[in-house]
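Check this.
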Amino acid sequence: MKKVIALAVLAIAVIAASATAGVSALSGNISADGSSTLGPYTQAAAEGFQKKNRGARVTVAISGTGGGFERFCRNETDLSNASRPMKQSEAINCRNADVKWVAFTVANDGLSVVVNKSNTWATCLTVPELKKVWEPGSKVNNWNQIRESFPNVPLKLFGAGTDSGTFDYFTEAINGKAKASRSDYLATEDDNIVVQGVEGERGAMGYFGFSYYEENKDKLKVLSIDQGKGQGCVTPSVATVQGNKYRPLSRPLFIYAKRSSFKRPVVAGFIGYIFNNEKAIAKKSGFIALTNRQLKKARYQYLQALKSNNT
């Protein structure tokens, strides 16, 4: 296994070396679409890669994980950013269109439940309390309905749109079934709208990826989560997500690469650049880096994808 990992690191190093050998070492266009959560990560990676390869252009669009997979399976994009694994129905669509892919885990995330800065009463919510708020048919519209000790303040909700992997993940983790959610909240694929909404309403609550909280922590307050299994209240952070303590709202994030696109040196080079600079990209974009075990696995998958290009 150690030999395989060493070969993977070497293969990535070769790609990276070729990418930085000259200002136009790699050239061509790369199109990516998908998760609003992962968008900032891929954009940060694109900026660094383009500085090393001035002939390369990486376009990053945001239409939600589901919308990204739709375009990917229509052969419209090279890469699909995803905050959840591809569903079976999406995989069937891709196979029907003869689109083959390889999936890479590129970062970790801790879904963050945020409230207005002026909210002084809530610091930690339990999973059952969140379920009471977000489950289908919920009529909870005041903070004192969540917990009797909370004040009489109207509750206004903001969250992910139904085409978002964040929506799928949050609803499954909190409500027990993906896409099972109350519908009377402001749903959006644009996490910046959630930021603005929660910032502007004293009684607001919203949720999105960790990176958006990190970018806006001067405007918002993040809540700790108690999953009810003896660990108590846990706040999302690099340490709690990597240590598997922030549950059930921590998750891996993915980039799906179309195999026909991966055969192009510029696309393979871009993925190689990510794994050579994964920690720096995660830090720059506010994400949580892969654990050493995750990174070894990703590099092994990368090596296997490179090998398949040569067979």
About this structure: The chain has a mean pLDDT of 91. The longest strand covers residues 101-110. The two ends are 22 Å apart (CA to CA).
